[in-house]
Amino acid sequence: MDISTLCVHGTCDSSHTTGSVTVPIYQTATFVHPSVGQSTGYDYSRVQNPTREQLEVIVSKLEDGFDALAFTSGMAAITAMMELFKIGDHIIASGDLYGGSIRLFQTISEKNGITFDYLTMSNPVQVKRLIKPETKAIYIETPSNPMMQVTDLAAISEIAKEYNLLMIVDNTFLTPYFQTPFHLGADIVVHSGTKYLSGHNDTLAGFLVVRTKELSEKLRFIYKTTGACLAPFDSWLIIRGIKTLAVRMERQQANAIQLANWLGKQPKVKKVYYIGLETHPNYEISKNQASGFGAMISFEVDSEQTAIRLLERVNLVLYAESLGGVETLITYPMLQTHADVPKEEREAKGINERLLRLSVGLENISDIMEDLEQAFTDE
Q1: Distance (Å, rounded) from C-alpha 237 to C-alpha 350?
Q2: What pLDDT is stored for residue 348 in this prediction?
């Protein structure tokens, strides 16, 4: 079945008898036992809920995984995943990561005795050099946030398999519609479901999708123990969002390609970071491992004053954190997504006072360009 069809029809609940074409919201905390020692398969919504179960089934199908677990946010999902590791374990991570992931690793995970090395994973040889006896996993964001770096997942997978390491891939930016990391060797796929899977900026969610039964059992024990499970109504909102995932990703990507090329011609724009541009250093890798380029663009302007003026003067484009919704959003990473990253570390990655990030939405592309053009224009 084509993934666009799966998005629409994979979210139907065939277990009920009402004929409803949408999954019911089972807004309940607990379930009645038919008899002593018997269960309907549902006992308590922290462990499983029928609405959330339907969502987990479709996300697992979309990623072609063994199982999926739905959490209250992307950070809740990553936090639970980190419970797979213990004191003394070592993880190699992408040098360019979402600021929330960096904050978690540096303030919580390191406190718990886990160590990290960060690097740009464009050179697999350098990744190999960082492997120690205590290394347990390689954590990858591709494309990365916000510098749009792309990692060759198949090449890193060979290293992970050689050294028996978990390969963890954050697939938020491209979604399973454009990229399926399990087909490239991943063991765990991470999503902020708040973003493209939901697609409407109206709820928070996160996912861990796993390749094996063993990982599923370990994480489901952590899941029910720590309790950050997605509520029934939020699960229903994500199910509804997924129905339009395919058409949204196609339209948003088409807008992004036009906008990236337009930005590259603006006098005040010094550099555009978009993986769909042939000038992107990882363009060929993206073509080989993904079916599309997504709708995330970062760009650097000529001065801090230009960046601030742009943020304050946009009207249709919304100055707001987050991404992946139907509205075009512009973000200032140094003050928002990466505000907690130390300045020296942040600027070394290129996240300076001139860098802006766009999540391109569904509006008419001419309207988006017109709004940005007026914001760029000197008074």
Answers
A1: 36
A2: 83
Query: CA 296, 282, 251 angle in degrees (round to 5)?
Result: 30
pLDDT at 379: 60
CB 118 within 8 A of CB 93: yes
pLDDT band at 339 (very low <50, low <70, confident <90, very high): confident
Domain ranges in the chain? 246-376
Residue 268 reports pLDDT greater than 70: yes
Could you tell me the strand order of the sheet in which 269-273 lies?
Answer: 269-273, 296-301, 355-359, 329-331, 318-319
The burial class, CB within 10 Å (0-12 / 13-18 / 19+), for 292 is buried
| Neighbour-count burial for 64-79, b at 16+ CB within 10 Å, e otherwise | ebebbbbbbbbbbbbb
What pLDDT digit, counting tens, does each position of 21-74 carry? 889 999 999 999 999 999 999 999 999 999 999 999 999 999 999 999 999 999
Hey, which residues are catalytic here?
Answer: 46, 98, 170, 195
Reported as a single tens digit per residue, the pLDDT across 344-375 is: 888 888 899 999 999 999 999 999 999 999 99
Model pLDDT for residues 93-131, shown as the tens digit of each residue: 999 999 999 999 999 999 999 999 999 998 889 999 999
**306, 190 Cβ separation under 8 angstroms:** no
Strand-strand pairing, 206-210 and 188-192? antiparallel
Average pLDDT on 314-342 reads 92
- Report the CATH architecture of 246-376: Alpha-Beta Complex (3.90)
